[in-house]
User: What shape does this take?
Amino acid sequence: MQFFGGSEISPSPPLPTASGNNAHMMYIFNRNGVCLLYREWNRPLRTLDSNQDHKLMFGLLFSLKSLTAKMDPSSAEKGNLGVPQLPGQGCSFHSFRTNTYKLSFMESPSGIKIILVTHPKASDLRESLKYIYNLYVEYVVKNPLYTPGTPIRSELFNTTLDQYVRGLG
Amino acid sequence: MAREVSESCMDSLLTEIVSSYCNVLYAAKPELAARRIEAIGYQVGHQLSERYTMERPRFSDHLEAIKFICKDFWSELFKKQIDNLKTNHRGTFVLQDDKFAWLSRMSGEPSTETRGSAQEAGNKAAETTGMHLYFPCGIIRGALSNLGIPCAVSADISNLPACSFVIRIKV
Assistant: This one.
């Protein structure tokens, strides 16, 4: 068995076709760790039940943010960890990639975390995440029927989101 | 020299007005809450119609005034005109807006989820949507009464996001 060397030893997943959805799944968390939205378009492997899955995801990202900020070689001061920062300030990680998927992450100053899992050849999705955040503001925050802090149940938001994700390259 | 306010602020303020009146101030009396919201709308409509008809001559008849509401007044408020106007020529007018701005973001439960509580959630959503329409009804009533046309205005939301306002002129 070879560990190093060779370009792609394990098989990479098939690239999505033009007609299929381009992302695997998406999570949205608020600053207290409540999972506001979980959308799944293509997820063959499921190891945990949804509650544990959400907690795992939130914990993972919290730790990753902390770790990347602590290991930042360029900044001298240790910022206030755990507090959401303005985009561009401080050290924020935005994606990690494995041989089978790519996870992209964005946190807004209000603590809303958006996580998008796509195929590994996806390009930088930061602009897409910003667009999804805009969709969130338009269809969820401004929806008079929505109570902040509760899971999102909006048909309009789901439809627009599905449409947008289908068009992601 | 008009002062401007962000549209998001307006939307949030309206959402909060309805929510405060229905859930906090008149929690047990939705009809009272509705009347208060409509009264606020009346005042607003009164003042707005004063401002928007400053340079115009008086309206010759009721139809002209209603057409003013459909075109100029609605454009000033929502940047679009009323899409459809129907009348029975006997004092009843139906104004239909195919994508009413203040309802465009209201969206309830996705149909595939929740089975048992879907009915209840759907009713609550319909109730709240209805509450949000008292304010624009009041605006129309205030505007028309300032133009000398006392009337009663009600709203009909049988197919969202289109909504119809029914104006009945008192003779």
User: Anything to note?
Assistant: Chain A has one domain: 23-73+82-166. The domain at 23-73+82-166 of chain A is CATH 3.30.450.70 (Beta-Lactamase). DSSP finds three helices and five strands in chain A. Residues 79 and 90 of chain A are 7 Å apart (CA to CA).
